[in-house]
Amino acid sequence: MTRAHVGLGSNLGDRMAILDTAVRVLDADELTHVMAVSRVYETAPVGGPEQGPYLNAVAVLETDRSPHELLELLLATEDGLGRARSERWGPRTVDLDLLLYDGPPVETPELTVPHPRARERAFVLVPLCDADPFATFPDGELAAAALARLGPVTGVVPVGELQP
Predict the structure, then answer these.
(1) Annotated active-site residue in 15, 65, 83, 119
(2) Where are the beta strands (DSSP E) in the chain?
(3) Residue 136 pLDDT greater than 70, yes or no
(4) pTM value surpassing 0.85
(5) Options 20, 65, 95, 121, the catalytic residue
(6) Is 92 annotated as catalytic?
(7) Which residues have CB under 8 Å from 153's CB, separation 6+?
(8) Domain spans of the chain?
(9) Catalytic: 83?
(10) Which of 3, 27, 39, 97 is catalytic?
(11) Which of 63, 112, 136, 157 could be a cystine partner for 32, CB 3.0 to 4.6 Å?
């Protein structure tokens, strides 16, 4: 099995319940197992239109799915949880991003892994380091080092936990 890290976000509806359901759906997949989940953090939206705050978390998976097959599972999970893709960077019931996948980087029109902006976003790096303190980018950089490079983190507030 291969280790993968998935970012979870929600800013519409019962955000905590939606993230919890997303984790349960991923864990129920016969080729994927949730090994760990970070705490849940509330964060301000970045970019896009005016919208409410997000809840963010990271799940650490072991999977027998390829990166593209895992992306298909993530998109199907989003659809099943009512994700509407009407406005880029707009509010959403759920957003599941493949952040890291053990192995060489992936760059196709459908998928880029590691996630191209993961190292720039505290709302990704804080839960990533929480879920897996040794999470490493393909070039060998620890996620914790990327987080330290951002400087003091504000606006990433722990608000609860999900169960793997």
Answers:
(1) 83
(2) 2-10, 32-37, 39-43, 54-63, 95-101, 106-107, 112-113, 156-161
(3) yes
(4) yes
(5) 95
(6) yes
(7) 122, 126, 147
(8) 2-161
(9) yes
(10) 97
(11) 63
pLDDT tens by residue, 53-95: 999 999 999 999 999 999 999 999 999 998 776 666 667 889 9
User: What DSSP designation does 117 have?
Assistant: T
Class of 2-161 in CATH = alpha beta
Q: Indicate the SS3 state at residue 120.
A: helix
pLDDT band at 27; cut points 50, 70, 90: very high
- Answer yes or no: 119 catalytic: no
Cα distance between residue 38 and residue 126, in whole Å = 9
Q: Which of 6, 17, 33 is nearest to 81 (CA)?
A: 17
State the catalytic residue, choosing from 15, 65, 92, 121.
92
Question: 142 phi and psi, to 5 degrees?
Answer: -70, 145
